[in-house]
Amino acid sequence: MKLFESGEMYLETIYVLSEKMPIVRAVDICEYRGVSKPSVSRAVGNLKQGGYILCGDDGGLTLTEKGKSVAEKIYERHTVLTEYLVSLGVDKDVASEDACKIEHVISEETFAAIKNKTNLK
Asked: What are the residue boundaries of the structural domains of the chain, listed by start?
């Protein structure tokens, strides 16, 4: 299953929320991302089918190793790109929004060059 930008965003959201709370549920994702329950339900189904997440009996969502690997990669890109843009003088909120767009399309080569050039690790 090919993972698209929206799937990456959901994985990143689960990752971020799991760092803040013991159990991540679909409703938490709805609130955090400002999306509808049907959208989250569809995404959760796709991510579960792709082997990226597990759904517990208590409704908790857990990243599999595969899901965690993707989520960590996207989160790192978001963090490094945000810091890079801020270092260029971009407002932090604008930088975060732009990083969110860039993180899904930037090549590994370009990301590595930004990361190495700016010593943002």
From this structure: 5-67, 70-118
